[in-house]
Write a structure and sequence with these properties.
The protein is an all-alpha fold. It is built from four helices and no strands. Helix 1 runs antiparallel to helix 2. It is elongated and about 100 Å long. The termini are far apart.
C-alpha cells in the first residue's frame, strides 16, 4: 500500500544520495527530505482519521442494530440500505410538509370567511404575485404601455 510505496521512495532517495556527487546533491536532497517528512506526517494523520471513522462507523452500526447475517458489516452493506431509506424518508417528509401547509391555508381561509361574516365588513383579498421571470417581464411590459 501507501506505506510500502513511501518506504520504497525513501530507499530510492537514499540510493540517489549515496551515488551522487556532493555538488549535485542539492536541491534534491533537501526537497526530498521535506517531501518524505510531510508524507509521513500526512500518512500518520490519515491513519488516525481512519481509526476515528472506523470507531464512529461501529457506533452507528450498534446504534441502529444493523446486522449483516452474522458477518461483520461493511460500509457498503450499511449504506446500500441506509441511502434508499433516507431518500424515502425525505420524500415522505416533504409530502407531509406540503399537506400541513395546505391544511393551514384552508384554516386561514376559513378564519377569514368567518371574520368577514361576523364583522360584516369588506375584506379584500389579492392574489399573490409570483416572482418568476414571466411575471417580471409582464409587469415591465405593462409599465411601458
Amino acid at each position: 500500500g501507501i506505506t510500502q510505496n513511501l518506504k520504497a521512495c525513501g530507499l530510492r532517495v537514499k540510493n540517489v544520495n549515496k551515488r551522487s556527487d556532493e555538488e549535485h546533491k542539492q536541491p534534491f536532497q533537501d526537497r526530498m527530505a521535506a517531501f518524505l517528512e510531510t508524507a509521513e506526517t500526512d500518512l500518520k494523520d490519515q491513519r488516525k482519521t481512519l481509526k476515528r471513522c472506523t470507531k464512529k462507523f461501529d457506533e452507528v452500526v450498534k446504534y441502529f442494530q444493523f446486522s449483516n447475517k452474522g458477518k461483520p458489516p461493511t460500509p457498503y452493506d450499511f449504506f446500500s440500505m441506509w441511502s434508499p431509506f433516507c431518500k424515502d424518508f425525505m420524500t415522505i417528509w416533504q409530502l407531509e410538509q406540503r399537506r400541513i401547509v395546505k391544511e393551514r391555508m384552508k384554516e386561514a381561509q376559513g378564519s377569514a370567511k368567518r371574520l368577514k361574516t361576523a364583522t360584516n365588513c369588506n375584506i379584500v383579498t389579492k392574489k399573490s404575485q409570483t416572482a418568476g421571470l414571466k411575471s417580471k417581464l409582464k409587469s415591465w411590459r405593462e409599465s411601458k404601455e
